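Write out the bound-state structure for flavin-adenine dinucleotide.
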Amino acid sequence: MKCDRQTLPIATIREENPSLRTFSFKGKLNAQPGQFVMLTVFSQGEKPFSIQDVDDRSFSMTIKNVGPFTDRLFQMKVGELVSVRGPYGKTFSEKQGRVLMVGGGFATPPLRFLAKSLKSAGVEYLTNINGARTATDLLYADDFQEMCDVSLVATDDGSMGYKGTSVDLMEIALAKEKYDQIYISGPEKMMKAAVKVAKQYDIPYEVNLERYMKCGVGVCGSCVMDPNGFILCMEGPIVDQDALKGLEDFGVSHRGKTGRLSPL
Ligand SMILES: Cc1cc2nc3c(=O)[nH]c(=O)nc-3n(C[C@H](O)[C@H](O)[C@H](O)COP(=O)(O)OP(=O)(O)OC[C@H]3O[C@@H](n4cnc5c(N)ncnc54)[C@H](O)[C@@H]3O)c2cc1C
Ligand code: FES
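---
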């Protein structure tokens, strides 16, 4: 098995909000929207992160500080070394035509990369719905504004845009306009609700799933989903409507570090 590992210094660190930072690296990564890398912080092991941007010479990930690994990363400075292997996983299909993206919380990084790619491919019409708890938690509001034909915002507390969820806004958008394809990335319960709406309108959709990943390359079995043994790190993380039908875990349960199944 080929292992594309690069050891690189952190090139820039941008604070998105108090708990989210975008880390960029100078290096070539032949990645497509939806893919992820395994990032090593020496002394803390290796963890998966979605790619939020790539160009000819650099790439970046937006990361939330949630535990020991990310906490150590947040203590690091520009110039300190990490190691990256990848990219891994299945990409978004990147259908053209009229496209709706629905994002929630800190799962929007792959949608930012997707918007950039769709725009450069000359997509006919692109709407993004970006949801978060509060205005402070919203990611990439200016970027989506620039890259999409329509950029809508929903916050739970109404501190920016529509007061409600991104799925509420999705229903409003679909009642007004026709779309050919929907791409969804957010907390799993939010994605489950969004899938229900996409089904009502009979529009093809893809979701971005996360499970506990240790190897990222189909070897360890930690990301396998029930009941059919779907290997998310290789057959996902982007899952289309046909593959999703077989995944009883979706929106219901997941396996943690030890492999034990627990409710979401
Ligand atoms: C394909 C994929 C893409 C991801 N992209 C991003 C991203 O763009 N930005 C981001 O901030 N986070 C992303 N994550 C989640 C990220 O991997 C975890 O937040 C990180 O591993 C937490 O490590 P920790 O030691 O800081 O916290 P921990 O205390 O270990 O965990 C905090 C939470 O993260 C989950 N988690 C921990 N380790 C993993 C792991 N190896 N795989 C999956 N979940 C884990 C735990 O179940 C727990 O809910 C992604 C996960 C996957 C599977
Ligand atoms: S993370 Fe090891 S098989 Fe998927």
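---
The chain is about 25% helix and 35% strand.
Helices lie at 68-75, 109-120, 141-147, 166-176, 188-200, 232-235, 241-245.
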